[in-house]
């Protein structure tokens, strides 16, 4: 296999050479934003939506991305081509860049922009067939009016605390409640519950990131004629749901079969979950920005 190449500030360099300074405020303070994107069969799924979210997150923290969205599109496609990847997970990072040791973001002269493409499966393959067991974390989602979950920032400590709780409980993922105790999301994925053929996911204001996979599932569920609502719900609603599943770019669509020791429905991935998973897999293979349509030549 040829060497992995990583885009960093205009150059494609090897993994060993893809390094940033210890004075980067992304490293010192988590000051920056990021995106996770997937390419399926050479189609980059909802690239435009991911870039809108990246640039909106950057705008929110007064960070100027030094490329236009058109240029960033080309960088993403070129990174895939350089690595000869058609099925890949892409990580885009825009950090505040090198500054001094104070918090002051105005001491940073130029953001660092990084694009990494590689193969990634968040959960082991067999869990997509069997479904996940999860727990509810004691750590609560940060309040939307303190730090909006819509800003996909490099500060993921809230989510990492949840992932630690999952690890300590010996399960692959955990649920986060918001400060009022309503279900918000997983550490890096959105949650859906299904009860009597009604599909429900928490609204953004509860404290969930409005995931791009989540939005695709909402569309698919409506196209299929299901009652699809964004509504507030509790842990109890999760326990008594017929089906539960998680969505995310890294997680894709994955059934949840046990929550805090309670079996969900039949204890197996549900019929509607599997139907939506199939519809999602069909959608992603031909819905996206085609790598081959890029204006750049393959080097
Ligand atoms: N919530 C959080 C906290 C996340 O980090 C992610 C992953 N980006 C998601 C939800 C799912 O969002 P998406 O479907 O856009 O990947």
TrEMBL record:
<comment type="function">
    <text>Acts on leucine, isoleucine and valine.</text>
</comment>
<dbReference type="Pfam" id="PF01063">
    <property type="entry name" value="Aminotran_4"/>
</dbReference>
<keyword id="KW-0663">Pyridoxal phosphate</keyword>
<dbReference type="InterPro" id="IPR043132">
    <property type="entry name" value="BCAT-like_C"/>
</dbReference>
<comment type="pathway">
    <text>Amino-acid biosynthesis; L-isoleucine biosynthesis; L-isoleucine from 2-oxobutanoate: step 4/4.</text>
</comment>
<keyword id="KW-0808">Transferase</keyword>
<dbReference type="InterPro" id="IPR036038">
    <property type="entry name" value="Aminotransferase-like"/>
</dbReference>
<dbReference type="InterPro" id="IPR050571">
    <property type="entry name" value="Class-IV_PLP-Dep_Aminotrnsfr"/>
</dbReference>
<comment type="pathway">
    <text>Amino-acid biosynthesis; L-valine biosynthesis; L-valine from pyruvate: step 4/4.</text>
</comment>
<dbReference type="GO" id="GO:0004084">
    <property type="term" value="F:branched-chain-amino-acid transaminase activity"/>
</dbReference>
<keyword id="KW-0100">Branched-chain amino acid biosynthesis</keyword>
<dbReference type="InterPro" id="IPR005785">
    <property type="entry name" value="B_amino_transI"/>
</dbReference>
<dbReference type="InterPro" id="IPR043131">
    <property type="entry name" value="BCAT-like_N"/>
</dbReference>
<keyword id="KW-0032">Aminotransferase</keyword>
<comment type="similarity">
    <text>Belongs to the class-IV pyridoxal-phosphate-dependent aminotransferase family.</text>
</comment>
<protein>
    <recommendedName>
        <fullName>Branched-chain-amino-acid aminotransferase</fullName>
        <ecNumber>2.6.1.42</ecNumber>
    </recommendedName>
</protein>
<dbReference type="InterPro" id="IPR018300">
    <property type="entry name" value="Aminotrans_IV_CS"/>
</dbReference>
<keyword id="KW-0028">Amino-acid biosynthesis</keyword>
<dbReference type="InterPro" id="IPR001544">
    <property type="entry name" value="Aminotrans_IV"/>
</dbReference>
